[in-house]
Amino acid sequence: MPSDPIDGNGLFECRLCGNCCKGYGGTFVTRQDIEAISRYIGTDSRKFVAEYCQLSGQKPVLAQRSDGYCIFWDKLCKIHPVKPPMCKRWPFVKSLLVDSANWQIMADSCPGIQPDVAVHTLEKHVRIILSEE
Ligand code: SF4
Ligand code: SF4
User: Fold this and answer.
1) Which end of the chain is more exposed for a tag (fewer CB within 10 A), N or C?
2) DSSP for the chain, written as a single string
3) Which-ligand-closest: CA of 18?
4) Range of the domain at 111
């Protein structure tokens, strides 16, 4: 999911390749996400869930097209200003605080990630991103 080209101390710069918007396990949307995205695309919440979401268990996730991409991917994110928090924060995910080696694994599929970074710099930036939510 392309983030803003955050200046994460040279940690990351999105290349808009779309890899992270494809084949993902499910982008959950909260009630607030549903309302914000519905407003942004000019529909109502009920229609949005029916037309743009799938259910994962009982929870709505953004639908995937048959090619595996998120329904909102079209060379860039069509709902960028209101995309869900997990898209906004990518690739600075909580699991990096548990095991920073995940950063190198993520770099295999995300060309925006600078793989050779100091762990303390990475962890510091992840904490900053998570504290902004
Ligand atoms: S909402 Fe946007 S950033 Fe998130 S998966 Fe879909 S296209 Fe990618
Ligand atoms: S995989 Fe990385 S570089 Fe490609 S769109 Fe996603 S965040 Fe950006």
Assistant:
1) C
2) -PPP---STTSB------GGGBS-S--B--HHHHHHHHHHHT--HHHHHHHHEEEETTEEEE-B-TTSBBTTBSSSBTTGGG--HHHHHTT--THHHH-TTHHHHHHTT-TTB-SS--HHHHHHHHHHHHHT-
3) 2
4) 19-131
